[in-house]
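Q: Here's a chain of 274 amino acids. Please give me its 3D structure as C-alpha cells.
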Amino acid sequence: MQTGKKPSVRSFASRALVGSVSMLLFIDDFFRIRAGRRSFFAEGTFVSFPIATFNRFDILIDRTIPSILGQTHQNLEIIVVIDGSHPDQTKRLSEIHDPRVRIKRLRNRTTYPKTAIDRWMVAGWRPRNVGARMARGDWIYWISDDDVLLPTAVEDLLRLARSSEFESVSGAYLRGEREPELMLPGDGIDAVGVAVTGPPAWLTRIYVGRMKWNRHSWLKKWDRPSDYDLMKRMLRVGVRFSHTNTVVAIQPEVEGTELTGLKGALQANEGLDQ
C-alpha cells in the first residue's frame, strides 16, 4: 500500500523543465567554451562591463560608473542595459558623455518569479545576457549596478588572469560599508565547489562571460542564485579558475537598508511579494 503523496502535475512539469533546460545549457556551454578557446586573443586587454539596472540610476551614475571609469586600467567599456524602466526614470543617463559608456534600453520589463527571494535569485538575468552579447571586449567583468570598484581592481584581476591560461578569476571584496565583512574566494568552495566570489570581483574571458545566466535557477530543483548556477556550470565544462585574496571591490548596503545581499534585498522588498 502506497502512503506517499503522488507528485502533482506542476511538480512533474517543473522537474521536466529543469531536466530539459539543464541539457540545453550544457550543450550550449560545452560548445561555447570549445569554440572560444580556439579563437580567443590571449594578448587582448579590452574589458567590458555589462551592467543590468532597473531603478537605481542615481547610485549607478554617482557611484558605480565613476568607480569603473576611474580604474588604473583604462582600456574598457561599460554597457548599461535598462530592464524596461520608464523613460522618465532614466533622464539622468543623459549626463553621461563618456564614449566608453553605451546604453541599451529593453522595451519591456523582464518577467520575474513572484516572491522576493526567487526574484533576487535571478535578478538581471536577461539584461546581463543582452549586455554580454553586446560586449566588444576580450574580457567581461561582472558587477552590479550599486557596487564600487577599488582603483586597481581591473589591473589586479587582469594581471592574474593573463599570468597563465586562466579563464575565470576572482578577488576578495568587502561586504558592507558600515561594518565591512571581508569576503574571500575560499568562502565559495562549500557553495560552488571552487574558490570564487562572483560580482563585484569577477573577471572572465569573453566567451566564458557569454555563457547564459539561467532564468530558471530559482526553481527548487536548483534553488540557487544565477551566479552560483553559472559557476557550477563553468566547473562542469572545465573552465580554468584562479583567485586572489586582494580586495578589489566593495558591495555597499542595499539602498534604504542597513543590510547587504539577500537580506538587504528582502528588506527593501517587504510587502512587494505578488
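Q: Can you summarize the key feature?
A: Residues 114 and 274 are 5 Å apart (CA to CA).
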